[in-house]
Design goal:
The complex is a heterodimer of chains A (about 100) and B (about 475). Chain A contains four helices and two strands; from the N terminus they run H-H-H-H-E-E. With about 100 residues, chain A is mainly α. Chain A has a domain of about 40 residues: Histone, subunit A (Orthogonal Bundle), CATH 1.10.20. The two termini of chain A are about 40 Å apart. Chain B is α/β, with parallel strands linked by helices and about 475 residues long. Chain B is about 40% helix and about 15% strand. An eleven-stranded mixed β-sheet of chain B has the order 1-3-2-4-6-5-10-11-9-7-8. In chain B, helix 10 crosses helix 12. The chains are: A mainly alpha (about 100), B alpha/beta (about 475). At the A-B interface, helix 1, helix 2 and helix 3 of A face helix 10, helix 11, helix 12, helix 13 and helix 14 of B.
Chain lengths: ~100, ~475
């Protein structure tokens, strides 16, 4: 069983502010879902066999710039919430 | 007047070729329908103001081809609606979320680039959806739900509910959706049209906003199997921009009137929770297939019963990672707080909806230290075993058949406060995404509820890369001519 303090902690980890009401509602909603998926933790006898690693492979490419510098600058900077010329403006991190 | 109700890509193409009407006229006909009906249905979040200009371009290319007595692509000048999580350069792409309300795409998704550059389609607008594709009813849109064209009190399904409703109400000829656990097939079923979830890797995911990256696929909606097939063939193919896309599997052309061996997972159908009308319709459909000369056999998929539990661990885990980028810093909604870190908390609080937050919290939980092995690792092991079940089944049969959804379209608001109940809606569609195989939903009948005919869907599943078999068996089932 989850408790309100667990929801609070998860919200901090996930960088989401929740109101008290939202915390309560989430607790009520999330708990049955976790209860449902917990059946996975109880599976001890599985029909079949888990595959060993090896089926998946990495796909790599050269680490090169594929577009000319400046091509998408305007499109990208016009989506900035705040800017100063072409610089993205954020609050000071170290104070 | 163009008969939009019975229109197919082939019919429109022939009309363009003969000069019976133009792409501008066809696009205008759809825009008129949208104007007339979409205030009730709310399939579109935005109709692109350059749709007629795109149609003019197509008409020029068609005129040039006609003058030179040359063929032109089947899709040229054909209106396509686009789910709001697929990027069209310069247009807003919001994923029906507040956090991306004013976000303008900086590049074209590969599917969009192909459709525009190689085929000259007309992108008519962006369609409503559950926020970031999380949901099965389109009620999770930050911009209000889409209504089912067959009954305005009911949901169109989801998450690609806007695309399905737009096709079903003749507000576009064809549409693009995305399917992570049934988000194309279930709305196709609820709206009485055809929807395909391609093989994982068959269609490039470049430019579709990631939800469950190991499960997401873009796919087509159409009123006919042939239309869905034409759109699929146009968007498929390996893409250097998506390292999970796969080279095409070369297969021999399926002969006309081919008889398929169709497997039915009986145990799975008997587990309860499925509407009696769905079971009855499914049995009737099997009879019909048998009468058409196909062979029906029982098969076992013993681990399918764990599919939903696996899915609702893997998806929130991938969601909590994928959603981390929406923090109000570089794009999207930013809510200012006392310091930089508070900006994150406030922007995400204001910008993200209930279901998105719910999945982020669950995902954060199952990935956290101490629970990772019990949930996430276990889910991946069981996922591999489910894949294996399918692999073994496809050694014995060509096609697997199930209903698409356990019920017909439900009422708006009926399940919104019970997320677990909403998740159980995905029981037939989720295992297919876990296995990465392709599946199609086709209309198989209706259930009459209070004088309204609500569509029922039939799902056909094939082995990796065998969409051609799905099209062939679906055409046989619906009596659609091969062309």
């Amino acid at each position: 069983m989850l408790e309100i303090k667990d929801i609070k902690k998860l919200a901090i980890l996930a960088r989401i502010k929740l109101s008290e009401e939202e915390e309560k509602r989430l607790l009520k909603e999330v708990d049955p879902i976790l209860g449902y998926v917990a059946q996975l933790t109880e599976i001890t006898s599985i029909v079949g066999e888990a595959k060993k690693a090896g089926e998946h492979k990495n796909v790599t490419r050269e680490d090169i710039n594929v577009t000319e510098t400046g091509t998408n600058t305007d499109a990208i900077t016009s989506n900035f919430p705040e800017k100063d010329k072409n610089y993205l403006k954020v609050k000071k991190i170290l104070s | 007047m163009i008969d939009l109700k019975n229109l197919t890509i082939k019919i429109a193409h022939d009309a363009f070729a003969k000069g019976e009407y133009t792409a501008v006229q066809l696009t205008q006909a759809y825009l008129d329908e949208i104007k007339k009906n979409d205030k009730d249905i709310h399939a579109y979040l935005e109709v692109y103001d350059n749709a007629l200009i795109q149609a003019q371009f197509a008409d020029k290319a068609i005129a040039t081809a006609r003058a030179a007595k040359k063929d032109f692509p089947l899709l040229m000048g054909i209106p396509v609606a686009v789910k709001d999580n697929i990027l069209v350069k310069g247009q807003i792409a919001s994923s029906a979320s507040k956090i991306l309300e004013n976000y303008r795409a900086t590049y074209d998704a590969t599917v969009i680039e192909k459709l525009q550059r190689e085929y000259g389609v007309v992108l008519i607008g962006r369609t409503n959806m559950d926020e970031f594709a999380m949901g099965g009813s389109t009620e999770n849109s930050a911009y209000g739900p889409t209504k089912n064209p067959h009954d305005l009190e009911r949901v169109p399904g989801g998450s690609s509910g806007g695309s399905a409703a737009a096709v079903a109400s003749n507000e576009t000829l064809i549409a693009l959706g995305s399917d992570t656990g049934g988000s194309i097939r279930q709305p196709a079923s609820f709206c009485g049209i055809v929807g395909l979830k391609p093989t994982y890797g068959a269609v490039s995911r470049y430019g579709v906003m990631a939800m469950g990256s190991s499960l997401d696929q873009i796919g087509p909606f159409g009123k006919t199997v042939a239309d869905a097939e034409i759109l699929f063939n146009a968007i498929k193919g390996q893409d250097i921009m998506d390292s999970t896309s796969l080279p095409e599997i070369k297969t021999e052309k399926i002969p006309e009137n081919k008889k398929f061996k169709i497997g039915v997972p009986r145990d799975f159908l008997n587990m309860g929770g499925i509407d009696a009308s769905i079971i009855a319709n499914f049995e009737e459909s099997l009879k019909k297939l048998k009468n058409l000369g196909h062979e029906i056999v029982d098969i076992a998929l013993p681990n399918l019963k764990y599919s939903l539990a696996v899915y609702y661990v893997i998806v929130p885990a991938e969601v909590s990672s994928n959603m981390a980028r929406f923090d109000g810093m570089r794009y999207g909604k930013r809510v200012s707080g006392g310091n930089g870190i508070e900006d994150y908390f406030l922007s995400r609080e204001a910008g993200l909806g209930r279901e998105v937050k719910r999945r982020i919290i669950i995902g954060t939980y199952v990935l956290s230290s101490g629970y990772y092995d019990a949930y996430y690792n276990k889910a991946n092991i069981v996922r591999d075993i489910i894949k294996d079940d399918y692999k073994k089944a496809f050694e014995k049969v060509d096609i697997i058949a199930t209903p698409t959804a356990p019920s017909v379209a439900f009422k708006i608001g009926e399940k919104i406060d019970d997320p677990l109940q909403m998740y159980l809606e995905d029981i037939f569609t989720v295992p297919i995404n876990l296995a990465g195989v392709p599946a199609i939903s086709v209309p198989s009948g209706v259930k009459n509820v209070n004088g309204k005919d609500l569509p029922i869907g039939m799902q056909f599943i094939a082995n990796h890369g065998r969409e051609d078999m799905l099209f062939a068996v679906s055409k046989s089932f619906l009596g659609e001519k091969n062309n």
